[in-house]
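PF06252 family protein
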Amino acid sequence: MTEMISKEQIKNIWGFAKEVNIDKDNLYCMIERISKKDSMRQMTKLQANKLIKELIAIKDKNKKSKKSYTQKRTDTNGNKNTKFQREKIYTLTGILGWNDNNNRINGFVKRMFKVDRIEWLDEDDCSKLIEILKKMIIRQGKDKELE
């Protein structure tokens, strides 16, 4: 006899469904398509794993489509004198784990320097920002990555 779905799998299914914004009706349509049953508790472990993999694939697909749209850097313009400083800033924000969110970097710059974008900083402000980021890295204990 095949093993039936576990409570942990049920929790995972509901959790992943919530993450990808699949409502109850659509989730049960997926269950019926995969298992030919109308109840989650009637599924086997193998069928539940198949459903979980499908939900994870949807989650990954959503993540990729959002990332390609929102994470474009427009660093082509800006002050030519600060190009190398901005590259250093992006390296430091990468160490901090901020490079996946451009709004976070620009929000930080706006709060600290009253400028909407990194590209608009002058040489002095870029130097100050680099020093601030270095201190933040040291405080977080990631200073080994600075070298």
